[in-house]
Amino acid sequence: MMTRQVSLRSWTSVSVFAGLLAFVFSGTDLIRAQAPQASAATQAAGRLPVRRVVLYKSGVGYFEHLGKVRGNQTVTIDFTSGQLDDVLKSLTTLDLDGGRVLGVNYNSEAALDRRLAALRLPVGEDTTRAQFLTALRGAKIDVRSGANHVTGRLLSVEQLPERKPDGTILQVDTLSLVTDAGEIEAVALTPGVSVHLVDTDLSKEVGRYLTLMASARDQDARRLAISTTGTGERDLFVSYISEVPVWKATYRLVLPAATDSRKPLLQGWAIVDNTVGEDWDDVELSLVAGAPQSFVQSISQPYYVQRPVVGLPERASTAPQTHESAISTVGPGAMAGTVTDTTGGALPGVTVSAVGPRGVPVVATTNSSGHFELPSLALGSYDVTFELTGFKTGLRRSVLVVAGSQAVVDMKLEVGALTETVTVTAASSALDTKNRASGAGGAGRGAGRGYAAMPLAAPAPPPPPPPSPERVSTFRSQQQSAADAGQLGDLFEYKLKEPVTIHKNQSALVPILSGEVEAEKVSLWNASSGGARPLRAVWVTNATGLTLDGGSFSVIEGQVFAGEGLVDPLKAGEKRLLSYAADLGVRIDSKGESAPTKVTRVTVARGLVTQQTEERQRRTYTARNEDTEPRVLVIEHPVRAGWTVGGTLTPAESTAEWHRFRLPVAPKTTVNFVVEETHQGQMQYALSSITDDQIAVLVRDNLIAPQTAASLRQILAQKAEVARINSEIAARENEIDAIGDDQERVRENMKSLKGSPEEKQLLQRYVKQLDNQENRLEVLRREGQKLVDDREKAQAELNRMIEALSS
Question: What would the 3-class secondary structure string for 518-581 be?
Fold first, then answer.
């Protein structure tokens, strides 16, 4: 590779950008050229390299390792502690050439105090020399100080006073030993004293303690060891998910000059960070904007529960017993499923044929939704065939039908000839017990520890024959088709065409798209921005055929940087406004005015008067272009529920919140345009409550016909008659109440009279007054009853007139 030296001072902004991209690509090529040797060396050391990486926007990544193993080999994969939980709950291992996986081991992350408790040494994490020696009590040791040494069993470690030459007294750690001769020797632990452990087993235990303390310093490193067994060279496939940084999308939009006929160019890049414990050497990288559900669960931490202590019973005796066999099953079995193409679309008219233990095919045809059902099937294993003209024949083997349940068999058919067959092994028979469980060694030491017995969840391995790369490719296509079926929701993928190399704890800027787009340069103004200056923007139509993920974008115009902004996810063919700078050449002002609410129509029906009203508002936009270049102005006017937009312009497009008006503005000119909005409403009130003044207004404004006005006046006259009768009834009721009050007063006065001549004369006058009042009450009651009858007739006539009026 030839390297060119270029002076940075001579570059324009675009040249610097292009040179940077060229450097990124050349650096990547250089790394790729060295990658195969590194991978070979790594694999020779028992490491399984990463071959495929899929990164999701939800903060997880899917990783595939593929490498060669030979014989009984153990391969390792390095992780961080943060990855281990995700790896353990998603790990998949496949020995693709007849071998099997014996097990997966990793360095434990149990609490250090629990691991120390498992040792035979009573020491803790922060152990001093004296504490450590105290833990060795009873051990045989050899203590040396220069040429002198003492051998014996350690009795104790205690602090004893020692006088220094200057007269000071210090407390010194002192060892007490019992020699083979039965003497007790005391040895001060001065800096020149060494202690040697004579007991070999104790030395090993101390070594284990020190190893634990060393591992505690490197708690973040985790190494997964996968043990395999088999003959010859084989392909080993491992996949898992792991928490990773979210990849970020960023775009560059290059706008051509005004004299250039070429379309704008859009380049997309992704920022990818490798924070996992492995290098990515020549990996297939896919970036997916989707959010598969994922969660964190600390399953790598050893978990302990408090168990109850149950005493032994005084006597326990259980007699053997037998159990009856069933005399009938729950019923026949059934089969159902859905047939789709590789894009997930339903396939109607597919012939589904199931051949079971009786050898007689049971046939069904998929409906318009691609669904089929085969009820009342005999119990046993079935081979199911799917046939449709123009598609490859699908075959699902060994589908188990059990009593009282329905086996679900879904199939995806690929485009091709009927003579081509795609065979898929059913989940119930996915494990090959011959190759996966027993192995070549039969029921020996490895029996029962193969792939089927692993505690980690793993999908069914693909069927043997073809070469291993094809089998892995088929395995990947099956996974991808599951995503296409919508199990991951609304997502899209950027799959890089060339392998990528990113070493651990490094990041890279990788290209994800490059293509022409439709873009119109405009000035965008919205009153909510609070300023008079619009924004420079481009009205972009995504013609790349790909969905653009949300991210930042930079605009290059006239070989200089013009601005930058943000873009939300953009579907293929979708049109979007993207703003990136302020337009200092244009000023915009707006003024609004409202017209009084106007009654446009009045209708009368069923005793209700309904007025149709119209509310009008006008907003005038004034734009001044001070620049020497023309502008295309896009003004966003708010959308209001119930209001209809009109005026001198029609919106170029409308969103849920804004009407967008497109207005050309020539250089050094001022333009105005008006947006008129109308709101239709109505108001109702009872006809019986209408007044003469309201009728006069309706007649004056020509809102009702003259005959309707005449009918309304007749109704008003009838209302007045009803009101007159009600008034007379009220007057008589008031007089009756007044007479009643006066009679009560007279009767009270009569009770107080004693029988004198004067009082008898007054009593006679009271009696005559009461008689006259009773006569008057009788007259009032007769008149009142007649008025009530008249009122009922008048009200009935008013109701009839109201019901009869309709306009």
Answer: EEEEEEEEEHHHCCCCCEEEEEEECCCCCCECCEEEEEEECCEEEEEEEECCECCCCEEEEEEE
Question: Tokens 């990463």 identify what position?
Answer: 50
Under DSSP, is residue 309 helix (H, G, I), strand (E, B) or coil? coil
Strand partners, 382: 399
Phi/psi at 371 (nearest 5 deg)? Answer: -95, 145
| CA–CA distance, 90 with 458 (Å, rounded to integer) | 8
**Neighbour tally for 204: CB within 10 Å:** 11
Match 């003497």 to its residue by tokens. Answer: 183
* 173: helix, strand or coil: strand
Give bridge partners of residue 338 from the DSSP assignment: 371
Domain at 348-412, CATH class: mainly beta
Q: Any idea which residue has 């006088």 for tokens? A: 163
Q: Give exposure, 366-381, as e/b (b: 16+ Cβ within 10 Å).
A: beeebebebeebeeee
Query: What is 706-804's CATH topology?
Result: Helix Hairpins (1.10.287)
Sign of CA dihedral 742, 744, 748, 751: positive
Q: What is the mean pLDDT of each run of 10 residues along the chain (807 residues)?
A: 30 31 32 36 62 86 88 84 79 85 73 53 67 76 82 84 80 84 83 80 74 60 82 89 87 83 86 85 84 70 72 56 41 85 88 87 90 86 90 87 80 72 43 33 34 36 42 36 34 81 89 84 86 89 81 86 88 86 90 81 79 86 92 91 84 88 92 89 77 75 78 83 90 90 85 78 84 89 91 87 76
What would the DSSP string read from start to end of 453-489? G-SS--PPPPPS-S-HHHHHHHHHHHHHHHIIIIIT-
- Integer Cα distance of 314 and 322 in angstroms: 26
For residues 322 and 301, what is the distance between their CA atoms, to the nearest angstrom? 43
Centre a 10 Å sphere on the Cβ of residue 544 and count the other Cβ atoms it contains.
17
Beta bridge partners of 663: 633
The structure tokens listed for 353 are 């044929």
Residue spans of alpha helices (H) in 45-179: 81-88, 112-117, 129-135
Alpha helices in 701-756 (DSSP H): 706-751
Let me know if domain 112-216 sits in CATH 2.30.30.520.
yes
Torsion of CA 508, 512, 515, 520, to 10 degrees: -80
Among the listed residues 645, 660, 539, 521, the one whose alpha carbon sits nearest the alpha carbon of residue 583:
521
Q: What is d(CA 638, CA 476) in angstroms, rounded to the nearest whole number? A: 49
Among positive and negative, which fits the CA dihedral 453, 459, 463, 469? negative
* Domain range annotation of the chain: 8-109+221-297+484-511, 112-216, 348-412, 517-689, 706-804
